[in-house]
Amino acid sequence: MGKYEEIIKAKDLFSLEDKETIREIKRKINTYIKEWHPDISTQDKEIAGEKSISLIKAKEIIMEYIENYKISFDKEEIEKYLSPGEVWMNRFGNDHIWSDGGT
Protein backbone atom coordinates (compact mmCIF):
# COMPACT_ATOMS: atom_id res chain seq x y z
CA MET A 1 0.00 0.00 0.00
CA GLY A 2 1.37 3.40 -0.98
CA LYS A 3 1.58 6.46 1.25
CA TYR A 4 -1.51 8.06 -0.32
CA GLU A 5 -3.61 4.95 0.27
CA GLU A 6 -2.33 4.73 3.88
CA ILE A 7 -3.33 8.32 4.58
CA ILE A 8 -6.76 7.92 2.96
CA LYS A 9 -7.42 4.71 4.91
CA ALA A 10 -6.46 6.49 8.15
CA LYS A 11 -8.59 9.53 7.19
CA ASP A 12 -11.59 7.31 6.57
CA LEU A 13 -11.09 5.45 9.85
CA PHE A 14 -11.56 8.75 11.71
CA SER A 15 -14.36 9.95 9.38
CA LEU A 16 -12.34 13.00 8.41
CA GLU A 17 -13.64 15.25 5.65
CA ASP A 18 -11.51 16.12 2.62
CA LYS A 19 -10.70 19.49 4.21
CA GLU A 20 -10.32 19.84 7.97
CA THR A 21 -8.40 22.18 10.23
CA ILE A 22 -5.64 20.73 12.38
CA ARG A 23 -7.81 21.46 15.43
CA GLU A 24 -10.74 19.50 13.91
CA ILE A 25 -8.48 16.59 12.99
CA LYS A 26 -7.02 16.34 16.49
CA ARG A 27 -10.45 16.62 18.11
CA LYS A 28 -11.93 13.84 15.96
CA ILE A 29 -8.93 11.57 16.47
CA ASN A 30 -8.99 12.04 20.24
CA THR A 31 -12.75 11.43 20.34
CA TYR A 32 -12.42 8.12 18.46
CA ILE A 33 -9.45 6.94 20.51
CA LYS A 34 -11.22 7.77 23.77
CA GLU A 35 -14.43 6.08 22.58
CA TRP A 36 -12.60 2.85 21.75
CA HIS A 37 -10.26 2.77 24.76
CA PRO A 38 -10.66 -0.71 26.29
CA ASP A 39 -11.28 0.73 29.78
CA ILE A 40 -14.08 3.02 28.52
CA SER A 41 -15.64 1.29 25.53
CA THR A 42 -18.91 -0.58 25.92
CA GLN A 43 -17.61 -3.13 23.39
CA ASP A 44 -15.86 -6.35 24.32
CA LYS A 45 -12.42 -5.49 25.74
CA GLU A 46 -10.61 -7.60 23.13
CA ILE A 47 -12.48 -5.93 20.24
CA ALA A 48 -11.94 -2.49 21.79
CA GLY A 49 -8.24 -3.27 22.28
CA GLU A 50 -7.80 -4.28 18.64
CA LYS A 51 -9.70 -1.22 17.45
CA SER A 52 -7.58 1.00 19.74
CA ILE A 53 -4.40 -0.38 18.22
CA SER A 54 -5.62 0.30 14.67
CA LEU A 55 -6.72 3.82 15.68
CA ILE A 56 -3.34 4.59 17.26
CA LYS A 57 -1.52 3.42 14.11
CA ALA A 58 -3.88 5.53 11.96
CA LYS A 59 -3.28 8.51 14.27
CA GLU A 60 0.48 8.19 13.74
CA ILE A 61 -0.03 8.22 9.95
CA ILE A 62 -2.30 11.30 10.06
CA MET A 63 -0.10 13.18 12.53
CA GLU A 64 3.02 12.53 10.46
CA TYR A 65 1.19 13.86 7.41
CA ILE A 66 -0.11 17.05 9.04
CA GLU A 67 3.16 17.74 10.87
CA ASN A 68 5.07 17.61 7.57
CA TYR A 69 2.43 19.35 5.45
CA LYS A 70 3.66 22.60 3.94
CA ILE A 71 1.29 25.43 4.83
CA SER A 72 0.83 27.99 2.07
CA PHE A 73 1.24 31.66 2.91
CA ASP A 74 0.43 32.62 -0.65
CA LYS A 75 -1.91 35.64 -0.83
CA GLU A 76 -4.51 33.83 -2.93
CA GLU A 77 -4.59 30.88 -0.52
CA ILE A 78 -4.96 33.10 2.55
CA GLU A 79 -7.73 35.12 0.92
CA LYS A 80 -9.80 31.94 0.53
CA TYR A 81 -10.35 32.04 4.29
CA LEU A 82 -11.28 35.71 4.79
CA SER A 83 -14.51 36.48 6.60
CA PRO A 84 -17.29 38.18 4.61
CA GLY A 85 -16.51 41.43 6.44
CA GLU A 86 -12.85 41.27 5.45
CA VAL A 87 -13.78 40.57 1.82
CA TRP A 88 -16.13 43.58 1.88
CA MET A 89 -13.47 45.87 3.36
CA ASN A 90 -10.88 44.66 0.84
CA ARG A 91 -13.26 45.32 -2.00
CA PHE A 92 -14.96 48.56 -0.92
CA GLY A 93 -12.91 49.88 2.01
CA ASN A 94 -14.42 52.81 3.87
CA ASP A 95 -16.13 54.21 0.79
CA HIS A 96 -18.93 56.45 2.10
CA ILE A 97 -21.42 55.11 -0.47
CA TRP A 98 -20.88 51.39 0.27
CA SER A 99 -19.98 51.47 3.94
CA ASP A 100 -21.94 52.56 6.98
CA GLY A 101 -19.71 55.60 7.36
CA GLY A 102 -17.61 53.99 10.09
CA THR A 103 -20.38 54.05 12.66
Would you mind describing this structure in some detail?
With 103 residues, the chain is mainly alpha-helical. The chain folds into two domains: 3-69; 72-103, no CATH class. It is 62% helix and 0% strand. The chain has helices at 3-13, 22-36, 45-68, 75-79, 84-92. Helix 2 (22-36) runs antiparallel to helix 3 (45-68). The model has no long low-confidence stretch (mean pLDDT 89).
Radius of gyration: 21 Å
What's the shape? elongated
N-to-C order of helices and strands: HHHHH
Whole-number count of domains: 2
Classify the beta-strand content into a percent band.
under 5%
Q: What's the rounded overall pLDDT mean?
A: 89
Helix content: 55-70%
Distance between the termini: 59 Å
Find the structural class using helix and strand composition. Answer: mainly alpha
User: What count of helical segments does DSSP give?
Assistant: 5
Q: Largest sheet, if any?
A: none
Low-confidence stretches: none
* Structure summary, number of beta strands: 0
Give the arrangement of secondary structure elements.
Layout: H1 3-13, H2 22-36, H3 45-68, H4 75-79, H5 84-92
Question: In short, what is this structure?
Answer:
The chain is mostly helical and 103 residues long. 62% of the residues lie in helices and 0% in strands.
